[in-house]
Design a protein that fits this description.
The protein is an alpha/beta fold. It folds into three domains: 105 residues, Nucleotidyltransferase, domain 5, CATH 3.30.420.40; 63 residues; 121 residues, no CATH class. The chain has 14 helices and seven strands. Strands 3-2-1-4-5 form a five-stranded mixed β-sheet. Strand 1 and strand 2 form a beta hairpin. Helix 6 packs antiparallel against helix 7.
C-alpha cells in the first residue's frame, strides 16, 4: 500500500526541512515577546512570514565543508579564552511624596518604600551606597525633594532632578498607562537609563541662600500683583482698606528682601563683579542681575546655544516631509525667562543694539512676539559673552562697531 522510499531518496530531508520551517513560522507567528525591565535581549518586530531572526534550526550561513587533500588530515583545534562580560550599569529612580520615598533600581521588578523623614532618608542612602548607581533620578515635586537631594549630594551620589512631565510622556510612549508610586519609581529608573539626564552639582551655602531670597521676593511680588488686581475690582470700602493694607505690607517686605539680596551679593567679590558686568548693559537692572546670579549659575560657563535652550528661548523645529511648521520655544527655566522678558522690553527701547535688531526683524515682517523672543535670545547671548570674556557692555566689539 505504501511504497518504501529508495535509499538515496531525499524524502527524510524534506520532512526535516518542512518541520524546521514550520517551527520557524510558528515562532514568528507567536508575536513579539513581552519586554522585561532591565533585560538586554533584543526584541524583534513581527513582519513578513520569514523570521527576521534566524532560529537555531536555521543558521545564518551554511556550515562550510572542509576540503581535505589527504584522508589522514586533521583540523587544528583552536582554543579561545573566555570573554569576561562587562559589568552592567545600574540606575535608580526615587518617587517623592509628602510622607514616603518609593525607589526602584534597573533590572529588578521590586520597589522599596522609606519614610520621607531624616531617618528614612538616611536608611535609603545606606541602601544606595551598597551598590552606587550610575545615576539616580528624582522628579521635581514643588520643594519636597530638596532634603533628599541635599542628602544624596552630601553622600557623593550621582543624582539628577527631572521634569515629571517628561517622565510621564515616556511612560505613555512605552504603553504604561497606570500610575502608582511604585510604577513612577520604575519609570524614573528607566528614564535615567534611556535619557541620561544632566547630573546635579552641590551648591555652596551662599548660593542656596541667594536662591531662596530671590525666590521669596518673586513669590511676594506675585502676591502683591494679585492683591492689586483684586483692589481694582473691589467696590466695598472696607475690603479696599484691607487690600491696601496687605499691599503696603508686601511692599515693605519686598524692600527688606531687596536690601538683604544686595548685602548678600556685595559680600562675595566674584558675585559683585559679575553683577557690575551685567548691569553695565542698558536694560539690565538689579532684578535681572539678581535672578541670573541666583537661578542661572551657568552664565559665562556654557555655550551660547546651550544657554539659550537652558533658559527656554531657543527655537525648535517642527517639520515633517514637505511641511515646515513654525519654530517655537519650549521648556527651560520659566522664572529666568520671565525676568529676561521684561528686561528685553526695556532694552528694545533704550539699548541701541537690541533696538536696532528688533526694528530690523519687525521691518522684515516678523511677528512682534517672534521679534521679542529673538531679542531675548540675543540679549542673553551678549550677557553670556560679557561674563565669559570679563567685558563691560561698552567693551564689546559689537557695541564699538555700532
Amino acid at each position: 500500500m505504501f511504497k518504501t522510499p529508495p535509499i538515496d531518496s531525499t524524502f527524510p530531508g524534506r520532512v526535516r526541512e518542512a518541520s524546521s520551517g514550520a517551527r520557524s513560522h510558528a515562532d514568528a507567528a507567536a508575536g513579539p515577546q513581552p519586554i522585561v525591565s532591565g533585560s538586554n535581549t533584543p526584541v524583534t518586530e513581527q513582519g513578513s512570514s520569514r523570521p527576521r531572526v534566524h532560529s537555531p534550526e536555521q543558521p545564518s550561513e551554511p556550515s562550510p565543508r572542509l576540503k581535505r587533500s589527504h584522508s589522514q588530515e586533521r583540523v587544528p583545534h583552536v582554543t579561545t579564552s573566555p570573554v569576561t562580560p562587562s559589568p552592567q550599569k545600574s540606575f535608580a529612580g526615587i518617587d517623592v511624596s509628602k510622607d514616603f520615598l518609593d525607589w526602584a533600581g534597573s533590572g529588578s521588578p521590586q520597589s522599596w518604600r522609606h519614610a520621607n523623614d531624616p531617618d528614612g532618608i538616611a536608611a535609603l542612602i545606606r541602601r544606595l551606597q551598597e551598590h552606587p548607581p550610575e545615576c539616580i533620578v528624582v522628579e521635581s515635586t514643588g520643594g519636597l525633594e530638596r532634603p533628599l537631594l541635599e542628602a544624596l549630594l552630601d553622600a557623593h551620589l550621582n543624582v539628577a532632578l527631572v521634569n515629571p512631565g517628561n517622565v510621564r510622556h515616556m511612560a505613555k510612549g512605552l504603553g504604561i498607562l497606570a500610575k502608582t508610586d511604585a510604577i513612577d519609581a520604575h519609570m524614573l529608573a528607566r528614564f535615567a537609563e534611556l535619557a541620561t539626564p544632566r547630573l546635579l552639582e552641590k551648591r555652596p551655602a551662599v548660593q542656596a541662600e541667594l536662591d531662596a531670597l530671590v525666590t521669596c521676593r518673586r513669590q511676594l511680588l506675585k502676591s502683591k500683583t494679585e492683591q492689586t488686581n483684586r483692589l481694582a475690582t473691589t467696590a466695598s470700602p472696607a475690603a479696599q482698606k484691607t487690600l491696601k493694607a496687605v499691599v503696603l505690607f508686601l511692599d515693605k517686605q519686598i524692600n527688606k528682601l531687596d536690601k538683604k539680596i544686595r548685602e548678600h551679593i556685595d559680600s562675595d567679590g566674584q558675585w559683585k563683579h559679575v553683577d557690575e558686568l551685567i548691569r553695565s548693559a542698558p536694560g539690565a537692572g538689579p532684578v535681572l542681575a539678581n535672578t541670573l546670579l541666583a537661578n542661572l549659575p551657568e552664565l559665562g560657563k556654557t555655550e551660547n546655544r546651550e544657554l539659550a535652550a537652558l533658559v527656554g528661548v531657543a527655537p525648535f523645529n517642527r517639520d515633517s516631509g514637505h511641511f515646515q511648521g513654525y519654530r517655537s520655544i519650549h521648556g527651560g527655566r520659566a522664572d529666568v525667562r520671565g525676568v529676561l522678558y521684561m528686561a528685553t522690553i526695556a532694552a528694545m527701547r533704550c539699548n541701541p543694539v537690541i533696538k536696532a535688531f528688533g526694528d530690523r526683524l519687525l521691518k522684515a515682517g516678523k511677528k512682534p512676539k517672534v521679534a521679542i523672543v529673538a531679542c531675548m535670545r540675543k540679549f542673553l547671548i551678549l550677557l553670556n559673552v560679557m561674563v565669559r570674556e570679563n567685558l563691560q557692555w561698552n567693551e564689546l566689539s559689537l557695541v564699538k562697531n555700532a
